[in-house]
């Protein structure tokens, strides 16, 4: 069955870094665009970053541009989100999402907390 499993979240101080990973299985990973989203309590879900199926094109929300980097390894069915210069407002549950046409799959999320 389809699975997207995020990992790498945790507690980090402001200015720190984290690397999130998302392991995919059960579908043809290399045919899907991938993205990271986040949702905080009381807030709308926010699209953080996207990457095309081949990894050739990436896009970022203005709030994370220059600080976050999305990447993927199609040989390992993995997508990553490198997060630097973290701010308290980056605190959220981060989800990876796989999309191809009308089909999409969500992971279960990983908590990132930025606090001193």
Description:
The protein is mainly beta and 116 residues long. 0% of the residues lie in helices and 53% in strands. It has strands at 3-7, 10-12, 18-25, 33-39, 46-51, 58-60, 68-73, 78-83, 92-100, 103-106, 110-114. Strands 2, 4, 5, 6, 9, 10 and 11 form a seven-stranded mixed β-sheet that branches. A four-stranded antiparallel β-sheet has the order 1-3-8-7, with no helix packed on it. The N and C termini lie far apart (40 Å).
Give structural attributes:
116 residues; mainly beta; 7-stranded mixed sheet; 4-stranded antiparallel sheet; 11 strands; 53% strand; globular
Order of helices and strands: EEEEEEEEEEE
**Beta-strand proportion:** over 45%
**Between the first and last Cα atoms, what is the distance in angstroms?**
40 Å
Q: Give the assembly state of these chains.
A: single chain
Number of strands: 11
**Uncertain parts:** none
Q: What structural class results from the helix and strand content?
A: mainly beta
Separate helix tally:
0
Task: Give the biggest beta sheet.
Answer: 7 strands, mixed
**Global Rg:** 13 Å
Give the integer mean of the pLDDT values.
96
Helix content: under 10%
In terms of topology, how is this protein built?
Layout: E1 3-7, E2 10-12, E3 18-25, E4 33-39, E5 46-51, E6 58-60, E7 68-73, E8 78-83, E9 92-100, E10 103-106, E11 110-114
Parallel strand pairs: 2-11
Antiparallel strand pairs: 1-3, 3-8, 4-5, 4-9, 5-6, 7-8, 9-10, 9-11
